[in-house]
Amino acid sequence: MTDKNKHLLRLADWSEERILDTVEIAIRLKKEVHNGQFSDRFHGQNIGMFFEKPSLRTITTFQVGIHQLGGSAVLLAPDSIGLGKRESIHDVATCLSRWVNALVVRCFKQELVEKLAEYGSIPIINALTDDSHPCQAFAFAQTIREQLGDFSGKTVAFIGDGNNVANSFLVLCAKLGMNFTLACPQGYEQPEAVIREMEPLLKKRGRQYRVFHDPKEAVKDADILYSDVWVSMGQEGEKAAKQSHFLPFQINDELLRFAPSHCKVSHCLPAHRGEEITDSVMDNPKINMAFEEAENRLHAHKAVLWQLMTPTADLGKV
Ligand code: CP
Ligand code: NVA
Q1: Closest ligand (CA of 56)
Q2: Cβ neighbours of residue 67 under 8 Å, at least 6 residues apart?
Q3: Helix, strand, coil content of the chain in percent (nearest 5)
Q4: Sheet of 155-159: strands edge to edge?
Q5: 318 — pLDDT class (breaks 50, 70, 90)
């Protein structure tokens, strides 16, 4: 049985307390870097980076963050490794566990991160799968904390596809006492299982989960609008169909007129300007938090590693 606390496989595995603690660590680490202070908590440790899908932010911020904490990032080559083809997942996980102190994984199937965690003995960090993106949720939470102060009772309206990013954000909202609204075309709602798992928690906290097929309805009481690409990595074959379905689900100045005046906007990036979000919103620093959130990926990832990895000074202690 995998001890889910040893890893970041899904945000749903982490308690509210641990999520909040991680956000506070990230805020502290950000302040330290801005003051020119760098911890050497992971001096001499190596962290593997296995990315089956493209990345700018995640791959860069993990590497920079690991170096800032005194460790080394080891970029692995998925094509050369041939996970499950050239060699079994079990044997790859077992070997990597003898060489590196943790493994950051971006892949298609959620099942792969779960298996690596099951077979290996090192922390596995989910850096995006088709089902979830918990690292993005941490950076988003940090940005809310810094810019809006408090989580409780806030409403996040996610305008877009009910897949990986939306799934982790629904979990984040449920865990931290926020309302979650999804605005999407018919047929692009979130998987029932994700909703069912979070419903009791939302109910217990008196928070709402709502789905709208009219984005104007969805933004009415939102504190933050969130956007993601219409066509996720690996779905390129669905591009034409998705683009026509999602056309009314663009965050633009017109849609913002239906949202409260204090409402902010963010995006996980990369943004496809002119599709899910316009230049006018992206380039409005008064409302757009996406670039701050992108910076926070750096600090949030360090905070996740801080929680999961054994500090160098404690390695080998019984
Ligand atoms: N938001 C995000 O995960 O960005 P990358 O795909 O560039 O890593
Ligand atoms: N939903 C997007 C997120 C990119 C960070 C994708 O999976 O491509």
Answers
A1: 1
A2: 73
A3: 45, 15, 40
A4: 209-212, 179-183, 155-159, 224-227, 264-267
A5: low
Paired strand residues for 156: 180, 224
Task: Tell me, yes or no, if 106 is annotated catalytic.
Answer: yes
* 234 Cα nearest atom in ligand 2: 8
Task: Report the residue among 105, 229, 269, 304 best suited for mutation to probe ligand 1: largest number of ligand atoms under 8 A from its CB.
Answer: 269
Pocket of ligand 2 (CB under 6 A): 128, 163-165, 228-229, 232-233, 268
Domains, the chain, ordered by start: 4-133+297-309 (3.40.50.1370), 136-294 (3.40.50.1370)
DSSP secondary structure of 177-245: T-EEEEE--TT-PPPHHHHHHHHHHHHHTT--EEEESSHHHHHTT-SEEEE--SS-TT-GGGHHHHHHH
Q: Measured in angstroms, how far is the CA atom of residue 183 from the centroid of ligand 1?
A: 22
- 268 assigned to active site: yes
Helix 134-148 to helix 290-308 angle, to the nearest 10 degrees? 120
Q: How far apart are CA 104 and CA 295, in angstroms?
A: 19
pLDDT in tens, 52-75: 999 999 999 999 999 999 999 999
- How far does residue 300's CA lie from ligand 2's centre (Å)? 18
